[in-house]
Amino acid sequence: MADQDSPQESRLGFTLGKNHIAFEIDETVYPLEAVYGASYLFLEKCYVYLSRPRAAAVDVRLTARESTTAADLDALAGEFANELLSQATRLRLSQASTRIREYYTAAALRAAAAAPSVDELLAELEAEELLEDPLEIMVPWEEKHGAQQNESDPKKDPE
Q: Is residue 93 in a domain?
């Protein structure tokens, strides 16, 4: 009969122990920054312990906060593996788009530096002739259409 505390292999091929699951990550596949990113996101779900058994490898040990089943630990490790892939993809996309982000940031800073000041905008407004109204928008209705329509309005109450 096997001891319940001895390590077992999970459905995903990870090492299962009592209330923990452990696996090794190859840094040539997943950068260390991605491992840290995934680990950070799992801090509220479980205890995360990272170690380096040798160069270019990271051991991850996820320990449940409460007593749990092997299936739950396996699911936790699967979620971690998925998040690790997501973090690695984000990191690679970030590295690939660095130059374009720098370009847009520089363009935005140049545009902000070239923008007119508040004083310049106020001076420009004062220089304009604001009282010109070629479409007669500022003319009241009565002046524009005359008072004759008001007298023939049947809806008006006689007082």
A: yes
The pTM assigned to this predicted structure is 0.63
- Whether 21 contacts 10, CB under 8 Å: yes
Q: Are 39 and 2 in contact (CB under 8 A)?
A: no
Q: Which residue range(s) make up the domain with 69?
A: 1-150
- Domain-located, residue 156: no
Block means of pLDDT (10 residues each) for the chain, 159 residues, are: 62 87 94 96 95 94 93 93 96 93 90 80 76 73 70 56
> Quick check: 16 and 9 in contact, CB under 8 A?
yes
